[in-house]
Amino acid sequence: MSATENRSVFVVIPAYNEAGCVGTVARAVKSRIPNVVVVDDGSSDQTAAEAEKAGAIVLTHLINRGQGAALKTGIDYALACGADIVVTFDSDGQHRAEDIDLLLAPILQQGFDVVLGSRFLDSGQHVPPLRKLALKIGLIFTRLVSRIRVSGTHNGLRALTRRAAVQMPIRLGRMAHASGIMVGIAWLRFRYC
Predict the structure, then answer these.
(1) Beta pairing class for 9-15 and 57-61
(2) Which of 27, 61, 80, 119 has the fewest CB within 10 Å, making it most exposed?
(3) Separation of alpha carbons 128 and 147, rounded Å
(4) pTM for this entry
(5) What is the biggest distance separating any 2 CA atoms in the chain, rounded to whole angstroms?
(6) Proportion of the chain in helix, strand, coil states, percent, rounded to 5
(7) Where residue 47 falls among pLDDT bands split at 50, 70, 90?
(8) Contacts of 123 (CB under 8 A, 6+ apart)
(9) What pLDDT score was predicted for residue 118?
């Protein structure tokens, strides 16, 4: 009996023009968690069709509204379907489906409200130097504004309890939502790791 059998877990995958990999990502996630929601954020390619072929529930924005808006759409849908835990997962193949179990464990076993993935805790990750600098500047800003200690701010791999997902203020449509989530964690005093 898995730890998630008595909990309703939904994985939300925002996608924009990811036809080349969204199907593979959705299938990998679906092999672990049956409730996979792909939000096609106004793609001009076959993103929605590939996600549907992989067995995901597909929600579609008619125009590109940005990752934050796609996450909000998917999270709202998951909550309306009764999700106890919502996992967010990128569509470009940068996350591993097996890491979902690592995200769920602190919620299921220790009662955390939010679990944040980090690409910087694994020494095997190779981030280009210029991108690493931009991410470091964003991290410093987020730490100053939110006062929470994290190793990265713009990682789409995270898990939220229902309570956190309902209260999390995701109002920014583009990439700024990631910093907004950090501020929300601090402001709402969620237990996070």
Answers:
(1) unpaired
(2) 80
(3) 27
(4) 0.80
(5) 45
(6) 40, 15, 45
(7) very high
(8) none
(9) 67
Average pLDDT over residues 22-51: 97
DSSP H/E element including 53: helix 47-53
- Calculate mean pLDDT across residues 13-38: 97
Question: CB neighbours of 139 closer than 8 A, spacing ≥ 6?
Answer: 150, 151, 152, 153
Give the tens place of pLDDT for each residue, 91-135. Answer: 998 889 999 999 999 999 999 999 988 654 554 455 667 766 666
Strand ranges in the chain using DSSP code E only, listed in sequence order: 9-15, 35-41, 57-61, 85-88, 114-116, 158-161
- Residue 170, CA distances (Å) to 46, 57, 125, 128, 183 in order: 27, 21, 28, 28, 10
The CATH number that domain 9-187 falls under is: 3.90.550.10
Q: Which residue ranges make up each domain of the chain?
A: 9-187
- Confirm if 87 and 33 have CB atoms less than 8 A apart: yes
3-state secondary structure of 164: helix
Token digits for 63?
Answer: 């125009």
Predicted local distance difference test score (pLDDT) of residue 1: 32
